[in-house]
Amino acid sequence: MTTEISIQSKKLPNGNKSSEGYSPSEGHSPSEGYSPSEGYSPSDGYSPSEGYSPQWRDTVDYIEDITYRIWEQGNVEYVRDTYTPQCPVWVLGGGCVGAEQVVVNTTRTLDMFPDRTLFPTRVLWNGDNVRGYHSSHLISTHMTYRDTDQSSDRDLDEEQRFDLFSRECHGNQARIRVIAHCMIRDGRIFEEWLVRDNGELYRQLGIDTTMAAKKLALKWKQDEPDHLEWLGSEFNRVMEKDEMGFEEDLQNIPNKFHRPAYRYLAHFIAERYQKVWGFQRMSSGKSFDDLVREIYHPHARFESPQTGNKDLVGWEGIGGLHDTFVFGSSDSVKMSLDWIIIEPGDDTREKRSGRSPNAWRYPQPSDLKHKEMFHSNFNDTAADVAESFTVAVRWTLAGKVKAIDAGISLTHDPLDIPSDREARVVVMGESHLQCVGFRIIRDVTVYDSNAVLAQILLHSSSDE
After folding, report:
1. Alpha carbon distance 406, 327 (integer Å)
2. How far apart are CA 400 and CA 20, in angstroms?
3. d(Cα 439, Cα 377) in Å, to the nearest integer?
4. So what's the pLDDT on residue 69?
5. Is the dihedral of CA 183, 189, 190, 192 positive or negative?
6. What pLDDT score does 2 carry?
7. Between the CA of residue 96 and those of 24, 103, 368, 417, what are the distances in Å?
8. Could you give phi then psi for residue 286, rounded to 5 degrees?
9. Considering the entire predicted model, what is its pTM?
10. Alpha carbon distance 130, 355 (integer Å)
11. Is 389 strand, coil or helix?
12. Sorting pLDDT into bands at 50, 70 and 90, what band is 14?
């Protein structure tokens, strides 16, 4: 489920540590030391409905149902039944903690956007009821802003308190992408990571995005030192982490004999994705273009805040993103892969004797080599493994950037930033990667471009 448009500034407990004893600043995940890929099969008694009320079949059923009840049907009180009292919600622009605060924030959002709908584009899942199910919920959300004539500053939402929304925005509509990544145990969400492109939301509503970022940076500095501390701890966590390591869980793959092959595919895609968007990608535009051609389909579709949430198509379009990415001018950047989910498609890799390979699925000679190697490595099971699959990657980027170049990459306008000023930037994001064969054919990536710009402006101010 996704929470509010505007996360309130209620402080996270214990220096932003989760009530479940997990803090991103500690540099570990809730599943550290756990090897679910060695886990259950249906014969072991594992069930994807374990821990849920009988009304839900599994995690996908649960997420779709509660999101619709709370948002489209307006049953905000249902949050208390589906979030734990101390659930932390991690958001790049500012987090909150607990079911009660989620109720408050959701109510305020629906007051501003009473017709808001959250279309569930896709829900991926893995995990179990012991350490927690993971859900990655890709949402297309549409809304119309309604001006609320509230009289007390105490009652206003954070954007209203900082005068982001004006009466001129009344009636303006927006459609943006959101990904809500939840951890669930015993039918209740106990931790959530929420990514949403507020920069695109503000742009569609007619709000100056640079002004919005300046006001967010000012709010952090004046009212939310704990959030600045969390950003700093996330920066350190990512920069100090072994870049290629990541968590995996394959319990959503019912046949345990197929799991090694899906582990291979998950690593194949995720490790190359990390190379594209991590340090190796930043070395040069030529290096980036080469890596794009290694993992993306020649006619892949790419959508992210960097593209204005419009599709770019093919190697040429994606390869042109190097110079306009916030870290495009950086030689100090790392990417942490924080959680991976792989979901098989409905097809198989069965060899078709006497027929040439599907050119769409294996468009390059290197793909045919990967295909042969895959069948050789997983001889007994390869034919039964899906040829199409989707990988969800929850990730964090951190790096130092030349502030004026990074700011222009986000705003496309000159900014009043000293030319020698550096900024430490953290980007928390999630990507849904639709794949065939051994390539990404569609990449939908979501992060908060407004919170990224706010960090650049914060570290570039004259009193910093």
Report:
1. 7
2. 31
3. 18
4. 97
5. positive
6. 61
7. 15, 11, 48, 31
8. -65, -45
9. 0.86
10. 46
11. strand
12. very low
CA distance 144 to 171: 6
Strands 439-447 and 296-303: parallel
Tokens 């379009």 identify what position? 317
- Are 92 and 86 in contact by the 8 Å Cβ rule? The answer is no
- String of DSSP letters for 287-320: HHHHHHHHHEEEEEEEESGGGTT--EEHHHHHHT
Written as six digits, the tokens of 44 are 């072991």
pLDDT digits (tens, 9 = 90+) for 204-258: 999 999 889 989 999 999 999 999 999 999 999 999 887 667 777 999 999 999 9
Rounded to whole angstroms, the Cα distance separating 63 from 75 reads 15
Distance, CA of 19 to chain centre: 22
Q: Nearest Cα to 407, choosing from 298, 324, 308, 331?
A: 324
DSSP letter for each residue of 124-193: EEEEETTTEEEEEEEEEEEEE--------GGGS-HHHHTT-S-GGGTT-EEEEEEEEEEEEETTEEEEEE
Task: Say whether pLDDT at 161 is over 70.
Answer: no
DSSP structure string for 244-277: T------TTSS-GGGHHHHHHHHHHHHHHHHHHH
- One-letter amino acid identity for 115? D
Two structure tokens written together for 147: 């001006």
380 contacts: CB under 8 Å, gap ≥ 6 = 257
Distance CA(170)–CA(148), nearest Å, equals 9
For residues 317-321, give the mean pLDDT. 89
- List Cβ neighbours of 149 (8 Å cut-off, separation of 6 or more): none
Q: From CA 76, how far away is CA 72, in angstroms rounded?
A: 10
Average pLDDT for 141-165: 61
What integer is the mean pLDDT of 338-352? 90
So what's the pLDDT on residue 286? 80
Residue entry with tokens 């929850």: 394
Distance set, CA 18 to CA 24, 279, 373 (Å): 9, 29, 43
Q: Give, in order, the Cα–Cα distances in Å from 53 to each of 122, 134, 186.
A: 22, 17, 8
Q: CA torsion sign, 301 to 304 to 307 to 308?
A: positive
**Residue type for position 21:** G
Contact 247, 339 (CB under 8 A): yes
